[in-house]
Amino acid sequence: MSKNFKYGFVDMHCHVIPAVDDGSKSMEMSLNMLRIAYENNIRTIIATPHNKIYVKSVSPKGIHKRVMQLQEEADKAGIDIKIYPGNELYYDETLPQRLEEGNALPMGESSDILVEFNPSDEYSYISEGLRRLAYEGWDPILAHCERYECFYKDKSRIDEIIDGGVRLQINSDSVMMGMFNPVGRFVRKLLSQEKISFVGTDAHRDTGSRIPDMLDCANYIRKKYGEDYAREILYANAMDLIK
């Protein structure tokens, strides 16, 4: 563990499985991503490859198989990170059926699902989609909630979907954008009101801006918003998904 934290973080949004989507391109890249994650005090990852109806997506069986392969390679390389299967689910009207038929994965063994929309989608479409998923018995987590333009137009809409049982995930790099950036300002306001339930890296690479870095973000959250809230959104809530 990092000397500053008594627990290892859980990255519950990460495109670390090699050659299944626009994330890691190879096993070598995946292992490099895991090394970076470990340096950032990440000890658990839920791998969340994209699942989209109009793009060829790896099957749930294929995800489980590839997670096992990646875990074996990580163990051989001495990288002490546990990896679990999940999906980042792009919403369309077929998603409830895909979930019901086992063609898309929840997070771990839970009923929680990580759901994304197009950033320009109207609020009515996003809220109705989330409501429909909840009606079907799923517990939606809105992926990188800071990306959706409709919430900037009317910030009370965030409260509406939270009141409907939706939990919010933000990306770690968004926290570090700062108050002069509208995304950073929005994210920090949500954190100050304790409306965020999960932090993920949404990492896709082992270099550049989309690496699995969480430590700077975690230090900022703990310093600014307190130890208890930091532990909740960096560790405890995500561990509940896989327990």
List keywords for this structure.
single chain, 243 residues, alpha/beta, TIM Barrel, 10 helices, globular, manganese ion binding, protein tyrosine phosphatase activity, Caps_polysacc_synth_CpsB/CapC, Pol/histidinol_Pase-like, hydrolase
Description:
With 243 residues, this protein is of the alpha/beta class. It has a single domain, classed as Alpha-Beta Barrel (TIM Barrel), CATH 3.20.20. Helices cover 43% and strands 16% of the residues. It has helices at residues 27-39, 60-76, 95-100, 123-135, 149-153, 156-163, 172-175, 182-192, 215-225, 227-242, and strands at residues 9-14, 42-47, 50-51, 82-85, 88-90, 112-116, 139-142, 167-171, 198-200. A six-stranded parallel sheet has the order 3-5-6-7-8-9. It has a three-stranded parallel sheet with strand order 1-2-4. Strand 5 (88-90), helix 3 and strand 6 (112-116) form a beta-alpha-beta unit. Helix 9 (215-225) crosses helix 10 (227-242). The longest helix has 17 residues, at 60-76. It is globular and about 50 Å long. The model has no long low-confidence stretch (mean pLDDT 96). It comes from Butyrivibrio fibrisolvens DSM 3071. It is an enzyme of class 3 (hydrolase). This is protein-tyrosine-phosphatase. Keywords: Hydrolase, Protein phosphatase. Pfam families: CpsB_CapC (PF19567).
